Amino acid sequence: MPADLAVIGLGHLGLPLAQAAVAAGIDTIGYDPDPRPYAELRAGRSPVEGTLTASEVRRMLSGGFRTTTSAAELGRVRTAVICAPTPLGPDRTVDLTALRDAARALAARLRPHTTVLLESAVPPGTTENVLRPLLEEGSGLVAGRDFHLACSPSRLDPGNRGHTYASTPKVIGGLTPACTESAAAFYGRLADKVVRARGPREAEMTKVLETNFRHVNIALVNEMAVACHDLGVDLWDVIRCAETKPFGFQPFRPGPGVGGHGVPVDPGRLPYGTRTPGPALRMVSVAQEINERMPSYVIQRCATLLNEHGKSVRGARVLLLGVTYKPDTADQEAAPAREIATRLMDMGAQIGFHDPHVLDWRVRERPVPRADSLYEAAAAADLTVLLQQHRTYDLQGLAVKAQLLLDTRGATPAGAAHRL
Asked: What is the C-alpha separation between 33 and 9, in angstroms, rounded?
């Protein structure tokens, strides 16, 4: 049967969109060439940990949501939203392979008057220089004349119940004014507010700015954390004082590294649409270097603390607490915990972990022992490292039980642990 909407890509972007659409009464299908999301959703489970609960999946299915691995279904929808993953490749450029595959699958079945939207995080120019040619060549249709094309980058904050799909404004940039209005008509059914950008590039660059803003400011406080430790200054107290300023300051906090799906993008590395060779945003490149050094700094602090207490990293029992990239979710995307565990293992440490949201954790394809009793494990470990401050952790009690506690998040009471 025809559907109003096809969500292409059932990952961390596509699933929340499909959930919002079904809740708004939009007849929705979800397409993914990977059979695993299809099987998981049909079984009533989310294929992406921490994205949807089992009850939310059941409500979507009972609301008419259908999943498919057949691209033929894409030829019978009024609106198609591409939510393909766009990770950074080994050369730190955005990998558009999944997006191109999604575009080709849709293009072969694209009908006139369809509205095509792009939610994937992409560098500026992708909608016009990559997506548009693929859709036009594969369909024989012309964007802006025969079908509508627009970009509306996702602004999801996984695990944040305060900012829902509906309450987060949607930025939209269409190829033509008519494309923008068609996209606005669709998103107006899902979001309380729609913000019209001048075009696709402005919409794409909005996401770049938002993501890079986060990384640059985290890099600043990460550098401040290292400097403050060397100077004997309590950075968390500094931040507490600074955030009382009612203007010109927004608090960010340091940590063991930066994870998540929003990767920093440097438009200067694009193979198209730029006149500047090499990195165009030097501050973004420097910020990325700083943030990527934080796991090494955590290892250095671990080694120093153990040495100060007469122990070596080799043979030390180290308990890692919280292996997800943000608190109170199961999402491990780019979390620094895995790199920290790997380096400690290379140095001969015996690693264990605890996370209320992760039951099985593997490093180098090997299972890491999970602590059943948190306090007993902390008492037995030579060093406990808090990597993520999940709400369920009693940090004051943990500080009492642990032999030695390194808090990389500044979450424990002042003086109760060694802070990053």
From this structure: 8
